[in-house]
From TrEMBL:
InterPro entries: AA/rel_permease1 (IPR002293). GO terms for molecular function: amino acid transmembrane transporter activity. Its main location: membrane. This is APA family basic amino acid/polyamine antiporter. GO terms for cellular component: membrane. Keywords: Membrane, Transmembrane, Transmembrane helix, Transport. It comes from Stenotrophomonas rhizophila. Coiled coil: none annotated. It is a multi-pass membrane protein.
Length: 470
């Protein structure tokens, strides 16, 4: 059936001239890309959102989200080394599950990456405005908030940082990856400073009641859905990002070795960072205070009598949060690029610049899309909808792992996921459960997004697909 036609594993890495990406990255670049993507808005800003939904039990929310991501990361590690081609979960689904499934996954990835970049841009804007305020510089509300805020019109800093990062990516992949690595080091140092200051102020009284809103998602009197799982579904945003590494497979010099190192190494490093920062935050201050802040870590440090360190955290966020923008904007442009190369999107988007080796048209198109969204959107609503797209992609990757283990048992695997028939199903079950823990409106928006996507597929993608023409 043409809807389920599949790419061949033997030709998935063969591409026509002028539409090939250039291998320039090694494993340090990939680990930095992963940590740069994972450690960002999630820990700098969404820890406050999560604490507001789960109370001190946000620690459990972090553990649950991290466990699900660990299963997904192991699945990605095996599949990316088997298929060192750009496209991530979209490409894996095209070879294992068929074209229409790949389209839905790719469409979901477009949602994920676009909204993540928008969310991080909005989060960066909040830190930038707070940082400047500390020096007596106050930007007008009309230019620092979207229309959902009274007096706001457009979040101009969020728009500007998006185009700045896009310009870096268009200048060259290796150059932007090297700068990213430097900024990641700054970000880790800043979080280490926060833990060193906040952890000695740990007060067990701030941990009571530990689970004020229960475990499962429930609707509160204020109309907000709270609970440990509701928070886990939102702060899941704080863990993913390693999937951006898999989009770099085609640009990696030794993908059979470096992709697994990058994916697993970044997940392990980020889990340690998150546990320490979250523990220090909820122990140092009541979640009812920092849970309402757009810059919770800086707020905690100010309340602890360390305004200088708070300014340093704010400065580090302003400097280093663009690493998240870079990683996800990079991933988004590569998803657009591969879907275009396959003919499911207009082919003009898959042309590679002879000078820089980057898909300039795709990167610019992506920047325009996400900048427009970042200028008017709300952080919490964007994060939840981005999670829906990610959960769909991670579910597909877990399924691809199991399907290809069955269909291609003798295929060479440079990295083999241990207990694949346990890890794959756990990734799927965990992601599906987290999806149904998202706000109901988010689930409906996601359904609407994919209905729109299927209309686009049948109207354009299916009849223009390169695989169909062959």
């Amino acid at each position: 059936m043409s809807l389920l036609r599949r790419k061949s594993l033997d030709t998935v890495t063969v591409h026509e001239a002028g539409r090939q990406l250039i291998p320039t990255l090694s494993w340090p670049h990939l680990i930095a890309l992963g940590i740069g993507a994972i450690v960002g808005t999630g820990i700098y800003t969404l820890i406050g959102v999560g604490a507001n939904l789960a109370g001190p039990a946000v620690l459990i929310s972090f553990a649950i989200a991290g466990a699900v991501c660990a299963c997904a990361a192991l699945s990605y590690a095996e599949l990316s080394t088997m298929m060192p081609a750009a496209g991530s979960a979209y490409t894996y689904s095209y070879t294992a599950l068929g074209e229409v499934v790949a389209w839905v996954v790719g469409w979901s990835l477009i949602l994920e990456y676009s909204l993540v970049v928008s969310t991080v841009a909005v989060g960066w804007s909040g830190y930038a405005v707070g940082f400047l305020h500390g020096f007596g510089i106050d930007l007008p509300l009309m230019l620092t908030a979207g229309p959902h805020v009274e007096g706001g019109f457009i979040n101009l800093p969020a728009v500007l940082i998006t185009f700045l990062v896009a310009g870096m990516l268009m200048a060259g992949t290796k150059e932007s990856a090297t700068l990213n690595a430097v900024l990641v080091v700054i970000k880790i140092i800043a979080l280490t400073v926060f833990v060193a200051i906040a952890l000695p102020h740990f007060d067990t009284g701030h941990m009571e009641p530990f689970m004020p809103f229960g475990f499962v998602k429930s609707l509160g009197a204020d109309g907000v859905e709270r609970g440990v799982m509701a928070a886990a579904a939102i702060i899941f945003f704080a863990f993913y990002g390693f999937d951006a590494i898999s989009t770099a497979a085609e640009e990696t010099k030794k993908p059979e070795r470096d992709l697994a190192i990058g994916i697993i190494g970044s997940m392990v490093g980020c889990t340690i960072i998150y546990v320490l920062v979250a523990l220090a935050a909820v122990g140092a201050m009541s979640y009812t205070i920092f849970g309402q802040s757009a810059e919770p870590l800086a707020l905690i440090l100010r309340e602890l009598g360390s305004p200088g360190a708070a300014k340093w955290i704010g400065a580090a966020a302003v400097i280093a949060l663009p690493t998240v923008l870079l990683a996800f904007l990079y991933g988004q442009s590569r998803i657009f690029f591969v879907m275009s190369r396959d003919g499911l999107l207009p082919r003009g988007l898959s042309k590679v610049s002879a000078r820089t080796g980057t898909p300039v048209a795709t990167t610019l198109f992506t920047a325009v899309l996400v900048a427009a969204l970042a200028g008017v959107a709300r952080l919490d609503e964007i994060a939840a909808l981005a999670n829906a797209g990610t959960l769909a992609a991670f579910t597909a990757v877990g399924l691809c792992l199991v399907v290809l283990r069955k269909r291609e048992p003798n295929r060479v695997r440079k990295f083999r996921t241990p207990l694949a028939y346990v890890v794959g199903p756990l990734a799927m079950i965990g992601c599906v459960y987290l999806f149904f823990s998202l706000p109901s409106t988010t689930q409906l928006y996601f359904l609407g997004w994919n209905v729109l996507g299927l209309i686009a597929y049948f109207a354009y993608g299916r009849r223009n697909a390169v695989l169909g023409k062959r």
